């Protein structure tokens, strides 16, 4: 980070009458050249004392400012936990301001402030000054807000944290962290950083809850199928063979192993929770039907901001579609008649901007053989 340091110079010329003191640079140059005046220079920490020395009617004061570009390593961090608020579900939210590891040029932290940004208006929330405890700078409802902080001689250990109980949609938005520090030259500098907290619409929460319930039901069914398969393979192979039922048990559930950018093309579901029969290839994220039959497939896509469209493909043909809007989750299910060797996968086909595809159980791809034909 760069800042501009200002140094002042005062031109003192007590022998020049008040009526002959035009404030022009040419005139200043002549005074300096004739040695009838002198420059008294310093930094702005000395400004108050310098003014008291030269503020007489027999002195001409001309302030000349010179800019000096200085590089200062100051990594300011603003973290929020959680990053997304679920009204009625989230019990607390922490907003923390601190210095990062790349702040070698900071000698001491003097002031730390947390503020809420609302358009062009900025609302002070909490602050902490050297020698004082952290305090709230605005009126909160009872038991709504608490503030903690620490200012020590070690800048990297300094922090201020605001905790809000039961945050709602009004607590979401943009936050501002402001810090005043002394650099290695003991010049006072000011830095700031901003961060955002998102809020999920209650209607979206209800829809997401329903999707999660559906996925849990599907996972339970897949687990039961897996257990029946293991029981059949270990103790009922003779009976199955005698009845002529040689259809394999086929079921899988997969999800992304990590968050990654949503993209056009085959979406990667590289972590398989269940893969009975081995028909799903997690490295290619493609299911290949082992036998002719009726299959059931379910998919859920969860993303952050902006719009996405995902399609369920059967041998390249679109058989189902999932669309998400801002910080949304979409799901769909389909029953397909497949022949042995047919392939099924999920493919991203549209994104309105850079979008993150959530991982773990938020985004999932499942399927199983209902019956062989």
Give a written overview of the molecule.
The structure is a single chain. The protein is α+β, with helices and mostly antiparallel strands and 373 residues long. A hairpin with a 4-residue loop joins β12 and β13 (188-199). It is elongated and about 80 Å long. 16% of the residues lie in helices and 47% in strands. The longest helix has 34 residues, at 202-235. The protein has helices spanning 25-33, 47-54, 202-235, 237-243, and strands at residues 2-12, 38-43, 63-71, 76-81, 84-85, 92-99, 106-118, 121-129, 135-136, 145-150, 159-165, 173-183, 188-199, 251-255, 260-261, 265-266, 271-276, 280-281, 286-288, 293-302, 308-314, 317-324, 329-338, 343-351, 356-357, 364-372. It has four helices and 26 strands. Strands 5-13-12-7-8-9 form a six-stranded mixed sheet, with no helix packed on it. The model is unreliable at 1-12, 16-28, 35-71 and 235-244 (pLDDT under 50). Its main location: secreted. It is found in: Secreted. One of its GO terms (cellular component) is extracellular region. Residues 241-373 form the C1q domain. Keywords: Secreted, Signal.
